Amino acid sequence: MFHISTSSRLPWAAPLLSLALLAACARSEPAPEPVRAVKVITVGASAMQSGSEFSGEVRPRIESRLGFRVGGKITHRQAEVGQRVTAGTVLAQLDPQDYRLAADAARAQVAAAATNRELAAADFKRFDALREQNFISGAELERRQATLKAAQAQLEQVQAQLASQGNQARYTSLVAEVSGVVTAVEAEPGQVVTAGTPVVRIAQDGARDVVFSVPEDKVMAIRAGTAVAVRLWAGQGEVAGRVREVAASADPATRTYSVKASLDAAAQPPLGATVTVLPQALRHDAVQAIKVPTSALRQEGQGTAVWVLDPATMTVRSQAVQVATADGNDAVISSGLTPGMQVVAAGVHVLAPGQKVTVWRDKGAVPLAAVATTR
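RESULT FIELD:
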């Protein structure tokens, strides 16, 4: 075994130590920032295609809550929810026994009054003959005449009472006066009801309305007679209608205003159907606005911003914008952009100010210059 002397090791150790110190002091160069491909659109003024939409319900123009004109105990109820009825259909019946007895008593009173009237008439006829022979005084004949008139009035009174009792006996049957559909039943057999208590609700055949609620900030634009478009959720196409009535005060619970719109006479959507109502007064089809996809927006501080491309340097810069409203899947910009600007539409969260980018194009996409020209 042999040993290397200290003098022989120093010439090799010094250069190695110097290289290690230089490597430690040298800083590594940062990796260059990647050039990202971004999707760019050229903004321009275009017509808005949206408007305010409201959820509504189809209701009959006239819906009647029918009840008995007399009180009593319900014995039968023939009407069922959803049943179509015609004028004259019996909907429900009360126990008529008491009213029949009252009618019988009224007939007996009529018979008694008729007998009294006949007796008074015969008596007056006899005394009239005696007066012609001067056997009685004129005052006595006048008393007989007054008795006859009283008997006649009594007969007419009980006859009227009999007619009233007969009507009440007929009122124990609840009859539909118009054709329509039973929409609700509010009383059951065995229940004792008073006169006028709702028993059956009927939606009359004929015109139908759409009822929807409008907030306070939009109700001033809706007036009676303005057009609305009604779109059925269960079908395709739209039905034309016109505003017929606007509530004078807001609902105390929802603070919205109820609006009724009459539908075209040819349209007969199902009662209770849910529809979407688009008032023409709240549409913005003729308004020109700058729109960008919602994917182009990002939060910057307390506001909203987009990335704007500088074609000369192919870098992006942040541009603050003010969003006014939404138009479908696009955001309507009220300030911050001018027509002709190129805005990054996708990948906005991976960019930085001054970053170089390239414009991504699909093979089948229209060139950017052509897009700018069409706008």
